[in-house]
Design goal:
- The protein is elongated and about 105 Å long.
- Helix content is 42%, strand content 14%.
- By secondary structure, the protein is α/β, with parallel strands linked by helices.
- It starts with a helix and ends in an 8-residue tail after the last helix.
- The protein folds into 4 domains: 40 residues; 127 residues, Rossmann fold, CATH 3.40.50; 46 residues; 38 residues, no CATH class.
């Protein structure tokens, strides 16, 4: 090897000095191949045992295998996850508590995606591999017909929603296209209304926000309920709800409110551009300009 190196080095160096463009092309090729080898060495596969993906330990799975009925709730925090497990319908509803905020997946390569434990657990629970917008993935292994993002009704909860929607839009777009992704709308306020004689028993109502609370107060006043008799409580988070309240407001299909996630075909390009501006690491200037232009239009509960 040393003999070959000694014989080739000087002539090859002279040739490179006389053929700069060719030398640059050779160097770029070597760099690309080195980076590709490095990425391949860092690939992270889903954990498997005996050829079958092992379901996450924190997943409280449902008993049914019918995905037309099955639902997976991605729940913010162990506290809310514990209440959700007691509130769920064990037959059709599964719970996966998430620890903290999932990683921003907008610029993560698909082969490095599963290095993040929370993202790995979501993918394994779903039974679907990560894919791109132009891929034709096999989603026949999907284990749940509805995937419901359930987070607190505050700024942190909105951030968690955004991070999960980023994950699905970037790495599981087929699930959005097929209508499998939903966002739960837990209320901020609980309104306890006293009984009105024998005509109306005591009631418990819920309001998503301040505007809805005001509308409920106005309606109750018109019904003859004294304003001072109405008790209003504010939820600081899902973990403050007892299982009965969580079931009634956020999980029971008969009484809950959930929003389906859809991307119109004519808005796909603009949606992708917005995600890139908001979640891209190199888009700080664009985000600042966007916030300066539109920051006054945001209604945030802080």
């Amino acid at each position: 090897m040393r003999l070959i190196f000694a014989q080739v080095r000087d002539p090859f160096e002279i040739w490179l000095n006389n053929h700069v463009e060719a030398g640059r092309a050779i160097a770029e090729l070597a760099i690309r191949q080195a980076l590709a080898r490095q990425r391949n060495a860092q690939k992270v596969e889903k954990k498997k045992s005996s050829g079958v993906a092992v379901l996450p330990g924190k997943l409280s799975d449902c008993e049914s295998s019918d995905i037309t009925e099955n639902e997976l709730f991605l729940v913010e925090g162990d506290s809310a996850g514990g209440s959700a497990k007691m509130a769920r319908d064990k037959e059709t509803q599964a719970i996966l508590p998430l620890r903290g905020k999932v990683q921003n997946a907008w610029e993560i390569d698909a082969d490095r995606l599963f290095a993040n434990t929370e993202i790995h657990n979501i993918a394994v629970a779903l039974g679907v591999d990560a894919h791109g917008a132009n891929d034709a993935p096999d989603i026949s292994g999907l284990r749940y017909g509805k995937v419901v993002i359930m987070s607190d009704a505050d700024v942190d909860g909105a951030h968690i929603q955004t991070l999960l929607l980023t994950l699905f839009f970037r790495h599981f777009p087929r699930l959005i296209d097929a209508g499998h992704i939903y966002v739960a709308q837990p209320p901020l306020y609980r309104i306890d209304v006293p009984a009105q004689g024998k005509k109306r028993p005591a009631r418990r109502l819920y309001a998503l926000d301040e505007g809805e609370l005001t509308a409920i107060r106005d309606r109750l006043t018109k019904e003859g309920v004294r304003p001072e008799s109405i008790e209003v409580g504010r939820f600081k988070g899902l973990g403050e709800m007892n299982p009965e309240q969580l079931r009634e407001t956020t999980m029971d299909p008969a009484t809950r409110r959930v929003l389906p996630v859809r991307v119109r075909d004519d808005a796909l390009t603009e949606t992708r551009r917005t995600f890139s501006m908001l979640m891209g690491k190199g888009e700080a200037a664009g985000r600042r300009a966007w916030m300066e232009a539109k920051g006054d239009t945001v209604e945030a509960d802080v």
